[in-house]
Amino acid sequence: PPHAKGQRRTMLYHAASQDTRPLVRVVVLYNITRKEDYKAADEEQLEEGAARHFEADDESRETAERVAEALRELSAGSAPSRADERVRVGEVRVQGVRGAEDIAAALHDCDRARTVVFSLVESLDGRSELDAEVARVYERLGVAYTGAGAAALELCRVKPAAKARLRACGLRTPAGQAVRHAAEPCALARECSPARPCIVKPAAQDASIGIDKHRSVVTSEAALRSRVDYVTKRFGEALVEEFIAGREFAVAVVGNAAATASGTADIRAATDVCTADEACANAGLFCVQIAECDFSAFPDPLSHVLDFDSKWNNNSEAWRLWSVVCPPVPALTPETRRAIASAGVAAVAATGVSDYGRADVRLGSNGLPYVLEVNPNPCLWPSSIFSSAAIEAGFTYEQLLHHIVALAWARHHVPSYTAASTSEDAAASLDCVPATESNADLSALARLSFLPPAHAGIAEPVAVATQ
Question: What residues have CB less than 8 Å from 393, skipping those under 6 apart?
Fold first, then answer.
Protein backbone atom coordinates (compact mmCIF):
# COMPACT_ATOMS: atom_id res chain seq x y z
CA PRO A 1 0.00 0.00 0.00
CA PRO A 2 1.17 3.60 -0.61
CA HIS A 3 1.27 4.44 3.10
CA ALA A 4 3.43 1.35 3.77
CA LYS A 5 5.87 2.34 1.05
CA GLY A 6 6.11 5.80 2.53
CA GLN A 7 6.65 4.34 5.99
CA ARG A 8 9.44 2.13 4.63
CA ARG A 9 11.15 5.13 3.01
CA THR A 10 10.96 7.00 6.32
CA MET A 11 12.45 4.04 8.18
CA LEU A 12 15.26 3.70 5.63
CA TYR A 13 16.06 7.41 5.92
CA HIS A 14 16.03 7.22 9.73
CA ALA A 15 18.30 4.15 9.70
CA ALA A 16 20.70 5.85 7.28
CA SER A 17 20.78 9.02 9.40
CA GLN A 18 21.78 6.93 12.46
CA ASP A 19 24.47 4.96 10.60
CA THR A 20 27.92 6.13 11.66
CA ARG A 21 29.90 3.90 9.30
CA PRO A 22 32.14 5.76 6.81
CA LEU A 23 30.40 6.69 3.57
CA VAL A 24 32.77 5.86 0.71
CA ARG A 25 32.80 6.94 -2.90
CA VAL A 26 33.37 4.03 -5.31
CA VAL A 27 35.10 4.60 -8.64
CA VAL A 28 34.71 1.61 -10.96
CA LEU A 29 37.57 1.54 -13.48
CA TYR A 30 37.82 -0.76 -16.49
CA ASN A 31 39.96 -1.23 -19.62
CA ILE A 32 39.46 0.49 -22.94
CA THR A 33 41.76 -0.45 -25.83
CA ARG A 34 42.55 0.33 -29.45
CA LYS A 35 43.05 -2.20 -32.19
CA GLU A 36 46.58 -0.99 -32.85
CA ASP A 37 47.48 -1.95 -29.26
CA TYR A 38 47.60 -5.57 -30.36
CA LYS A 39 50.18 -6.35 -33.00
CA ALA A 40 51.48 -9.87 -33.54
CA ALA A 41 53.98 -11.30 -35.95
CA ASP A 42 52.02 -14.52 -36.11
CA GLU A 43 48.35 -14.62 -37.14
CA GLU A 44 47.61 -17.47 -34.78
CA GLN A 45 49.09 -15.55 -31.88
CA LEU A 46 47.03 -12.54 -32.95
CA GLU A 47 43.92 -14.71 -32.87
CA GLU A 48 44.59 -15.95 -29.34
CA GLY A 49 46.14 -12.71 -28.10
CA ALA A 50 44.45 -9.65 -29.52
CA ALA A 51 41.11 -11.40 -29.96
CA ARG A 52 41.18 -12.41 -26.33
CA HIS A 53 41.98 -8.87 -25.23
CA PHE A 54 39.11 -7.34 -27.18
CA GLU A 55 36.72 -10.00 -25.86
CA ALA A 56 38.06 -9.40 -22.35
CA ASP A 57 37.81 -5.63 -22.66
CA ASP A 58 34.20 -5.91 -23.82
CA GLU A 59 33.58 -8.12 -20.80
CA SER A 60 35.40 -5.62 -18.56
CA ARG A 61 33.18 -2.76 -19.75
CA GLU A 62 29.96 -4.75 -19.39
CA THR A 63 31.00 -6.04 -15.97
CA ALA A 64 31.96 -2.51 -14.87
CA GLU A 65 28.54 -1.20 -15.87
CA ARG A 66 26.82 -4.05 -14.02
CA VAL A 67 28.99 -3.57 -10.92
CA ALA A 68 28.27 0.17 -10.90
CA GLU A 69 24.55 -0.46 -11.33
CA ALA A 70 24.50 -2.91 -8.41
CA LEU A 71 26.47 -0.58 -6.12
CA ARG A 72 24.16 2.33 -7.00
CA GLU A 73 21.20 0.19 -6.00
CA LEU A 74 22.90 -0.35 -2.64
CA SER A 75 23.59 3.36 -2.29
CA ALA A 76 19.99 4.27 -3.08
CA GLY A 77 18.60 1.66 -0.70
CA SER A 78 16.76 -0.19 -3.45
CA ALA A 79 18.86 -3.32 -2.86
CA PRO A 80 19.27 -4.81 0.64
CA SER A 81 22.68 -4.16 2.17
CA ARG A 82 24.35 -5.76 5.16
CA ALA A 83 24.62 -3.76 8.37
CA ASP A 84 27.73 -5.71 9.40
CA GLU A 85 29.93 -4.29 6.62
CA ARG A 86 32.51 -1.72 7.71
CA VAL A 87 31.47 0.99 5.24
CA ARG A 88 28.43 2.34 3.43
CA VAL A 89 28.42 2.88 -0.31
CA GLY A 90 27.85 6.46 -1.42
CA GLU A 91 28.42 7.98 -4.85
CA VAL A 92 29.38 5.49 -7.59
CA ARG A 93 31.18 6.49 -10.77
CA VAL A 94 32.34 4.29 -13.67
CA GLN A 95 35.09 5.18 -16.13
CA GLY A 96 37.20 3.47 -18.78
CA VAL A 97 40.99 3.93 -18.73
CA ARG A 98 43.83 2.94 -21.04
CA GLY A 99 47.04 4.02 -19.35
CA ALA A 100 48.46 5.22 -16.03
CA GLU A 101 47.72 8.84 -16.94
CA ASP A 102 44.05 7.99 -17.43
CA ILE A 103 43.92 6.35 -13.99
CA ALA A 104 45.50 9.41 -12.36
CA ALA A 105 43.09 11.72 -14.18
CA ALA A 106 40.08 9.63 -13.12
CA LEU A 107 41.10 9.91 -9.47
CA HIS A 108 42.53 13.42 -9.31
CA ASP A 109 39.58 14.93 -7.42
CA CYS A 110 39.00 12.02 -5.02
CA ASP A 111 39.17 12.22 -1.25
CA ARG A 112 41.70 9.43 -0.69
CA ALA A 113 40.35 8.68 2.80
CA ARG A 114 36.80 8.14 1.50
CA THR A 115 37.38 6.57 -1.93
CA VAL A 116 37.69 2.96 -3.02
CA VAL A 117 38.63 2.05 -6.58
CA PHE A 118 36.72 -1.01 -7.74
CA SER A 119 39.40 -2.13 -10.17
CA LEU A 120 38.51 -4.13 -13.27
CA VAL A 121 41.64 -2.91 -15.08
CA GLU A 122 43.83 -5.78 -16.31
CA SER A 123 46.25 -4.02 -18.68
CA LEU A 124 48.01 -0.73 -19.35
CA ASP A 125 48.27 0.70 -22.85
CA GLY A 126 46.99 -2.60 -24.23
CA ARG A 127 49.67 -4.71 -22.50
CA SER A 128 48.17 -7.36 -20.23
CA GLU A 129 51.60 -8.28 -18.85
CA LEU A 130 51.50 -4.92 -17.04
CA ASP A 131 48.51 -5.86 -14.87
CA ALA A 132 50.70 -5.66 -11.76
CA GLU A 133 51.68 -2.10 -12.68
CA VAL A 134 48.00 -1.13 -12.39
CA ALA A 135 48.16 -1.95 -8.67
CA ARG A 136 51.39 0.04 -8.34
CA VAL A 137 49.68 3.07 -9.89
CA TYR A 138 46.95 2.89 -7.24
CA GLU A 139 49.61 2.53 -4.53
CA ARG A 140 51.50 5.58 -5.79
CA LEU A 141 48.25 7.57 -5.79
CA GLY A 142 47.56 6.47 -2.21
CA VAL A 143 44.05 5.22 -2.89
CA ALA A 144 42.33 2.06 -1.64
CA TYR A 145 41.57 -0.44 -4.40
CA THR A 146 39.92 -3.83 -4.67
CA GLY A 147 41.76 -7.03 -5.47
CA ALA A 148 45.31 -8.30 -5.52
CA GLY A 149 48.44 -6.22 -5.14
CA ALA A 150 51.34 -6.08 -7.56
CA ALA A 151 53.42 -8.90 -6.04
CA ALA A 152 50.50 -11.35 -6.07
CA LEU A 153 49.55 -10.44 -9.65
CA GLU A 154 53.12 -10.96 -10.85
CA LEU A 155 53.47 -14.25 -9.01
CA CYS A 156 50.21 -15.72 -10.28
CA ARG A 157 50.94 -14.70 -13.87
CA VAL A 158 54.22 -16.67 -13.91
CA LYS A 159 52.82 -20.16 -13.42
CA PRO A 160 56.10 -21.99 -12.62
CA ALA A 161 56.91 -19.41 -9.94
CA ALA A 162 53.43 -19.66 -8.43
CA LYS A 163 53.61 -23.45 -8.37
CA ALA A 164 57.04 -23.40 -6.76
CA ARG A 165 55.58 -21.14 -4.07
CA LEU A 166 52.63 -23.50 -3.52
CA ARG A 167 54.90 -26.52 -3.20
CA ALA A 168 57.23 -24.63 -0.82
CA CYS A 169 54.17 -23.97 1.35
CA GLY A 170 53.39 -27.68 1.53
CA LEU A 171 50.52 -27.65 -0.95
CA ARG A 172 49.93 -30.48 -3.37
CA THR A 173 50.25 -29.35 -7.02
CA PRO A 174 50.86 -31.37 -10.20
CA ALA A 175 54.51 -32.20 -10.85
CA GLY A 176 55.96 -30.04 -13.59
CA GLN A 177 58.85 -28.22 -15.21
CA ALA A 178 59.39 -24.98 -17.13
CA VAL A 179 61.18 -25.43 -20.48
CA ARG A 180 62.45 -22.90 -23.02
CA HIS A 181 62.66 -25.11 -26.11
CA ALA A 182 61.61 -28.54 -27.34
CA ALA A 183 65.06 -30.12 -26.97
CA GLU A 184 65.56 -29.09 -23.34
CA PRO A 185 65.88 -32.07 -20.98
CA CYS A 186 62.58 -32.77 -19.26
CA ALA A 187 61.97 -35.59 -16.82
CA LEU A 188 58.23 -35.56 -17.48
CA ALA A 189 58.82 -36.05 -21.21
CA ARG A 190 60.54 -39.35 -20.53
CA GLU A 191 57.62 -40.49 -18.37
CA CYS A 192 54.86 -39.27 -20.70
CA SER A 193 52.57 -42.09 -21.84
CA PRO A 194 48.84 -42.96 -22.03
CA ALA A 195 49.13 -44.06 -18.40
CA ARG A 196 50.88 -40.82 -17.42
CA PRO A 197 49.62 -38.02 -19.68
CA CYS A 198 51.03 -34.49 -19.50
CA ILE A 199 49.68 -31.07 -20.34
CA VAL A 200 51.72 -28.33 -22.06
CA LYS A 201 50.74 -24.67 -21.67
CA PRO A 202 52.37 -21.23 -21.88
CA ALA A 203 54.24 -20.45 -18.68
CA ALA A 204 53.19 -16.80 -18.42
CA GLN A 205 49.81 -16.33 -20.10
CA ASP A 206 46.35 -16.07 -18.61
CA ALA A 207 42.77 -16.67 -19.86
CA SER A 208 43.75 -20.09 -21.28
CA ILE A 209 45.71 -18.54 -24.15
CA GLY A 210 47.70 -21.31 -25.83
CA ILE A 211 45.58 -24.13 -24.37
CA ASP A 212 43.64 -26.43 -26.70
CA LYS A 213 41.56 -29.30 -25.30
CA HIS A 214 42.44 -31.47 -28.33
CA ARG A 215 46.19 -30.75 -28.47
CA SER A 216 47.52 -29.57 -25.12
CA VAL A 217 47.19 -32.91 -23.31
CA VAL A 218 49.74 -35.36 -24.70
CA THR A 219 50.49 -39.06 -24.16
CA SER A 220 53.98 -39.54 -25.67
CA GLU A 221 57.35 -37.87 -25.58
CA ALA A 222 57.16 -37.04 -29.29
CA ALA A 223 53.78 -35.34 -28.92
CA LEU A 224 54.97 -33.50 -25.82
CA ARG A 225 58.04 -32.10 -27.54
CA SER A 226 55.97 -31.11 -30.58
CA ARG A 227 53.56 -29.18 -28.36
CA VAL A 228 56.45 -27.57 -26.46
CA ASP A 229 57.87 -26.45 -29.81
CA TYR A 230 54.52 -24.86 -30.71
CA VAL A 231 54.11 -23.08 -27.37
CA THR A 232 57.68 -21.80 -27.03
CA LYS A 233 57.76 -20.40 -30.57
CA ARG A 234 54.49 -18.49 -30.07
CA PHE A 235 54.35 -17.62 -26.39
CA GLY A 236 57.85 -18.00 -24.96
CA GLU A 237 58.56 -20.40 -22.11
CA ALA A 238 56.36 -23.49 -21.78
CA LEU A 239 55.12 -25.24 -18.67
CA VAL A 240 54.99 -29.05 -18.76
CA GLU A 241 52.87 -30.69 -16.06
CA GLU A 242 51.47 -34.07 -15.20
CA PHE A 243 47.80 -34.14 -16.18
CA ILE A 244 45.42 -34.88 -13.31
CA ALA A 245 42.47 -36.62 -14.96
CA GLY A 246 39.89 -36.01 -12.27
CA ARG A 247 37.03 -33.71 -11.27
CA GLU A 248 37.89 -30.00 -11.42
CA PHE A 249 36.68 -27.51 -8.81
CA ALA A 250 36.79 -23.75 -8.41
CA VAL A 251 37.23 -22.65 -4.79
CA ALA A 252 35.80 -19.16 -4.28
CA VAL A 253 37.63 -17.32 -1.49
CA VAL A 254 36.91 -13.93 0.10
CA GLY A 255 38.81 -12.02 2.76
CA ASN A 256 42.41 -11.29 3.62
CA ALA A 257 45.06 -13.51 5.17
CA ALA A 258 46.49 -10.67 7.26
CA ALA A 259 43.20 -10.42 9.13
CA THR A 260 43.23 -14.15 9.85
CA ALA A 261 46.44 -13.66 11.82
CA SER A 262 44.70 -11.27 14.22
CA GLY A 263 42.89 -14.24 15.73
CA THR A 264 39.42 -12.92 14.92
CA ALA A 265 38.70 -15.43 12.16
CA ASP A 266 36.38 -18.39 12.55
CA ILE A 267 38.91 -21.19 12.02
CA ARG A 268 36.21 -23.75 11.20
CA ALA A 269 34.99 -21.55 8.37
CA ALA A 270 38.54 -21.08 7.11
CA THR A 271 38.93 -24.83 6.57
CA ASP A 272 35.47 -25.53 5.17
CA VAL A 273 32.84 -23.78 3.08
CA CYS A 274 31.07 -21.02 4.98
CA THR A 275 28.01 -18.83 4.69
CA ALA A 276 27.85 -15.16 3.75
CA ASP A 277 27.00 -14.41 7.39
CA GLU A 278 30.18 -16.11 8.61
CA ALA A 279 32.35 -14.38 6.00
CA CYS A 280 30.98 -10.94 6.88
CA ALA A 281 30.87 -11.34 10.64
CA ASN A 282 34.51 -12.43 11.01
CA ALA A 283 37.74 -10.95 9.74
CA GLY A 284 39.80 -13.47 7.84
CA LEU A 285 40.05 -15.62 4.75
CA PHE A 286 37.05 -17.81 3.88
CA CYS A 287 35.95 -20.33 1.26
CA VAL A 288 32.40 -19.26 0.47
CA GLN A 289 31.61 -22.17 -1.84
CA ILE A 290 33.05 -24.81 -4.17
CA ALA A 291 31.85 -24.96 -7.78
CA GLU A 292 32.55 -27.79 -10.23
CA CYS A 293 33.47 -27.54 -13.91
CA ASP A 294 31.23 -30.10 -15.62
CA PHE A 295 32.91 -31.77 -18.60
CA SER A 296 30.54 -34.74 -18.75
CA ALA A 297 29.50 -33.85 -22.33
CA PHE A 298 33.05 -34.74 -23.46
CA PRO A 299 33.62 -38.52 -23.34
CA ASP A 300 37.43 -38.34 -23.53
CA PRO A 301 38.80 -37.48 -20.05
CA LEU A 302 41.94 -36.05 -21.69
CA SER A 303 39.78 -33.28 -23.19
CA HIS A 304 38.49 -32.19 -19.78
CA VAL A 305 40.28 -28.83 -19.77
CA LEU A 306 39.07 -25.23 -19.92
CA ASP A 307 40.80 -24.14 -23.10
CA PHE A 308 40.76 -20.89 -25.04
CA ASP A 309 37.59 -21.77 -26.96
CA SER A 310 35.78 -22.78 -23.76
CA LYS A 311 36.22 -19.26 -22.40
CA TRP A 312 36.20 -17.00 -25.45
CA ASN A 313 34.75 -18.63 -28.59
CA ASN A 314 30.97 -18.67 -28.22
CA ASN A 315 30.63 -20.38 -31.61
CA SER A 316 32.61 -23.42 -30.48
CA GLU A 317 31.49 -26.78 -29.17
CA ALA A 318 33.84 -26.30 -26.22
CA TRP A 319 31.94 -23.14 -25.22
CA ARG A 320 28.49 -24.74 -25.52
CA LEU A 321 29.08 -28.08 -23.83
CA TRP A 322 30.82 -27.31 -20.56
CA SER A 323 28.99 -25.88 -17.56
CA VAL A 324 29.39 -24.91 -13.92
CA VAL A 325 27.63 -26.85 -11.16
CA CYS A 326 27.41 -25.28 -7.69
CA PRO A 327 27.47 -27.00 -5.31
CA PRO A 328 29.14 -30.00 -6.99
CA VAL A 329 27.10 -33.00 -8.17
CA PRO A 330 27.56 -35.73 -7.07
CA ALA A 331 28.01 -34.19 -3.66
CA LEU A 332 31.41 -34.28 -2.02
CA THR A 333 31.91 -36.09 1.25
CA PRO A 334 32.48 -33.72 4.20
CA GLU A 335 36.12 -34.84 4.41
CA THR A 336 36.78 -34.22 0.70
CA ARG A 337 34.93 -30.90 0.78
CA ARG A 338 37.03 -29.72 3.70
CA ALA A 339 40.26 -30.85 2.02
CA ILE A 340 39.40 -28.95 -1.18
CA ALA A 341 38.28 -25.83 0.70
CA SER A 342 41.38 -25.90 2.89
CA ALA A 343 43.68 -26.29 -0.12
CA GLY A 344 41.97 -23.39 -1.89
CA VAL A 345 42.18 -21.05 1.11
CA ALA A 346 45.83 -21.95 1.74
CA ALA A 347 46.70 -21.42 -1.94
CA VAL A 348 45.13 -17.97 -1.97
CA ALA A 349 47.01 -17.11 1.24
CA ALA A 350 50.29 -18.46 -0.14
CA THR A 351 50.11 -16.27 -3.24
CA GLY A 352 49.12 -13.16 -1.30
CA VAL A 353 45.83 -12.54 -3.13
CA SER A 354 43.65 -9.86 -1.51
CA ASP A 355 39.89 -9.44 -1.04
CA TYR A 356 38.67 -12.13 -3.43
CA GLY A 357 40.25 -14.91 -5.45
CA ARG A 358 39.63 -18.32 -6.97
CA ALA A 359 41.77 -21.43 -6.65
CA ASP A 360 41.37 -24.13 -9.30
CA VAL A 361 41.73 -27.59 -7.77
CA ARG A 362 41.58 -31.11 -9.23
CA LEU A 363 40.79 -34.26 -7.35
CA GLY A 364 43.33 -36.97 -8.14
CA SER A 365 42.59 -40.66 -8.54
CA ASN A 366 44.00 -41.02 -5.01
CA GLY A 367 41.16 -38.84 -3.71
CA LEU A 368 43.50 -35.97 -2.81
CA PRO A 369 43.25 -32.34 -4.00
CA TYR A 370 45.88 -30.81 -6.32
CA VAL A 371 46.01 -27.03 -6.74
CA LEU A 372 46.29 -26.16 -10.44
CA GLU A 373 46.55 -22.39 -10.09
CA VAL A 374 45.30 -19.33 -8.25
CA ASN A 375 43.30 -16.66 -10.07
CA PRO A 376 43.49 -13.19 -8.51
CA ASN A 377 40.62 -10.82 -9.34
CA PRO A 378 38.40 -13.44 -11.03
CA CYS A 379 35.51 -12.38 -13.26
CA LEU A 380 32.65 -10.72 -11.36
CA TRP A 381 29.90 -10.92 -13.95
CA PRO A 382 26.76 -12.07 -12.07
CA SER A 383 26.78 -15.54 -13.66
CA SER A 384 30.56 -16.08 -13.43
CA ILE A 385 31.98 -19.03 -11.50
CA PHE A 386 33.04 -16.82 -8.60
CA SER A 387 29.80 -14.83 -8.34
CA SER A 388 27.68 -17.97 -8.66
CA ALA A 389 29.59 -19.59 -5.80
CA ALA A 390 29.21 -16.54 -3.56
CA ILE A 391 25.49 -16.30 -4.30
CA GLU A 392 25.13 -19.98 -3.41
CA ALA A 393 26.72 -19.13 -0.04
CA GLY A 394 23.96 -16.59 0.70
CA PHE A 395 25.26 -13.31 -0.71
CA THR A 396 23.15 -11.31 -3.11
CA TYR A 397 25.19 -10.00 -6.03
CA GLU A 398 25.00 -6.49 -4.57
CA GLN A 399 26.11 -7.71 -1.13
CA LEU A 400 29.09 -9.54 -2.64
CA LEU A 401 30.30 -6.33 -4.28
CA HIS A 402 29.68 -4.39 -1.06
CA HIS A 403 31.77 -6.93 0.85
CA ILE A 404 34.65 -6.60 -1.61
CA VAL A 405 34.54 -2.80 -1.28
CA ALA A 406 34.52 -3.10 2.53
CA LEU A 407 37.47 -5.52 2.48
CA ALA A 408 39.49 -3.18 0.27
CA TRP A 409 38.73 -0.16 2.47
CA ALA A 410 39.67 -2.09 5.63
CA ARG A 411 43.00 -3.22 4.16
CA HIS A 412 43.99 0.40 3.70
CA HIS A 413 42.36 2.08 6.73
CA VAL A 414 41.68 -0.37 9.59
CA PRO A 415 44.66 -0.85 11.96
CA SER A 416 43.97 -4.57 12.55
CA TYR A 417 44.47 -5.09 8.81
CA THR A 418 47.23 -2.58 8.12
CA ALA A 419 49.43 -2.69 11.21
CA ALA A 420 48.61 -5.30 13.85
CA SER A 421 48.49 -8.12 11.33
CA THR A 422 51.64 -8.51 9.26
CA SER A 423 52.14 -10.77 6.29
CA GLU A 424 54.51 -12.86 8.39
CA ASP A 425 51.77 -13.37 11.00
CA ALA A 426 49.38 -14.42 8.28
CA ALA A 427 51.94 -16.84 6.90
CA ALA A 428 52.37 -18.43 10.30
CA SER A 429 48.62 -18.82 10.81
CA LEU A 430 48.22 -20.63 7.50
CA ASP A 431 51.65 -22.29 7.25
CA CYS A 432 52.27 -20.21 4.13
CA VAL A 433 54.52 -17.40 2.92
CA PRO A 434 52.37 -14.92 0.98
CA ALA A 435 53.84 -12.95 -1.89
CA THR A 436 55.56 -9.70 -1.01
CA GLU A 437 57.61 -7.22 -2.96
CA SER A 438 60.74 -8.49 -1.20
CA ASN A 439 60.34 -12.23 -1.60
CA ALA A 440 58.81 -12.46 -5.09
CA ASP A 441 62.04 -13.27 -6.96
CA LEU A 442 60.20 -14.57 -9.99
CA SER A 443 63.22 -15.12 -12.19
CA ALA A 444 64.67 -17.59 -9.69
CA LEU A 445 61.38 -19.25 -8.83
CA ALA A 446 60.32 -19.65 -12.44
CA ARG A 447 63.36 -21.76 -13.29
CA LEU A 448 62.68 -24.26 -10.51
CA SER A 449 61.18 -27.60 -11.33
CA PHE A 450 58.43 -28.61 -8.94
CA LEU A 451 59.00 -32.32 -9.32
CA PRO A 452 58.45 -34.47 -6.24
CA PRO A 453 61.78 -35.06 -4.49
CA ALA A 454 61.27 -38.82 -4.31
CA HIS A 455 61.35 -39.32 -8.07
CA ALA A 456 62.41 -37.41 -11.15
CA GLY A 457 59.19 -38.31 -12.90
CA ILE A 458 55.62 -38.30 -11.65
CA ALA A 459 55.30 -39.29 -8.02
CA GLU A 460 53.16 -38.51 -5.04
CA PRO A 461 53.77 -34.90 -3.90
CA VAL A 462 53.87 -33.82 -0.29
CA ALA A 463 50.67 -33.64 1.71
CA VAL A 464 48.39 -30.64 1.44
CA ALA A 465 48.63 -28.12 4.26
CA THR A 466 45.62 -27.84 6.55
CA GLN A 467 45.11 -25.20 9.15
Answer: 252, 273, 274, 275, 276, 279, 288, 289
